[in-house]
């Protein structure tokens, strides 16, 4: 019988290898494209552009920054038309901060040397040409040159007063916190039916003392606000209309058309530093995202502290102690299926179990005098972290079981032959050898939990939470507080913002920071895993 010859390309599976390689290249290209898009937009949108002045055929004039250019098809003639997206700001005047301008309608284009971009606490940036500064009803500086030392000294003085005002408002918040504690103590005494006159007298004396402090701080705040509101900057916008902006509302004034390359680089670095360290403003579209960064990292750390012990103990029981029967096989199938459950289902469960059941029980047991105001019976950092721990615990269980399975049986037998008990073997031999696998599961859990948004929307994340879960007020750690999250911040700014176009820098840069945080957390876990592997000379996974 003639022997059948198999072609070489089939024996070596050359087409399949080519298909696998093409799939790998496609996956890498998609990843690089995504990262390139995020990095190019994120790193480029904070660069200060020149301010351009357009005069159009219809006689209108517009001043602002060229955001982008594109070619579209004219619906009437069918011809391609080049148009410009102009960021003209001044949303308080026109209701929108962007305008499309056809290049064919531009009669004149110039870059006024005295044009400035004014960053404000409200209504977004304003573009114009400064004219004068008013102190009440009299002109104080006329004309205004933002590079003149007189203007810079006045502006620095106003900024100093505003920082003092912020400090006073911080002290007022601390006093309000003290008064809230006094109120809670009153509620507690009333709930316990305490009739001791000395206790009530001491409480009323403390309350009167803090109310006196509050009155002094309120007077100081009023005086500072009155002094700040007297200075007003008059700016001429593109059509010549005078726009009056209180100096107290101005964050910075940027003479974009007179900046050197070094000044632009310094401004670029300052904007990124402000993004990382400051609180958001203007519906989260401007300012910084420090509360969101802090909330994201805090949530991931608390989630990690909760998910690792539960996942490891479950995997240890299933692999080292439980009898390998049909029941353990069903449990493993259930665990694997839990990893595929949509995250919003975990959010609903966390809301119903943690908040409405456990949180309400805690309030009824330890805070009955606060009723009907909930303390733990509402969304907060603790419940959101525990919900994500439930979401990611199947990943840790599976990774830990695989690590335990990879340990050679001879190691267990050798430990038991030397007289070690089951627990001693697990504690001193099995767990150290499986630690790299546990850390692998933690890495996967962090990667998934950091970007989840849907469960957090039901269990504690909010649009704005300037009060951090950790501060200098007793008990210093407030896990019951609501918090901000980078993923939800991206969703809120990108889709719920009243000015979506102006929010693009915040969306892309927040996305960039979220990627950086995920990479940093994963690299930290990978570094720990590699150190453990070198320590025990054995890789679990």
Short structural summary:
The protein is built from 15 helices and 13 strands. It is of the alpha+beta class.
Q: Give the averaged pLDDT, no decimals.
A: 86
- Structurally, the number of domains stands at 3
Please count the helical segments. Answer: 15
Q: Report the sheet with the most strands, covering strand number, pairing sense and barrel closure.
A: 6 strands, antiparallel
Total number of beta strands = 13
> How far apart lie the N and C ends?
48 Å
Question: Which outline best applies?
Answer: flat
What share of residues is helical? Answer: 55-70%
Order of helices and strands: HHEEEHEEEEEHHEEEHEEHHHHHHHHH
Structural class category: alpha+beta
What is the subunit organization of this protein? single chain
Q: Would you tell me which CATH topology of the largest domain applies?
A: MetI-like fold
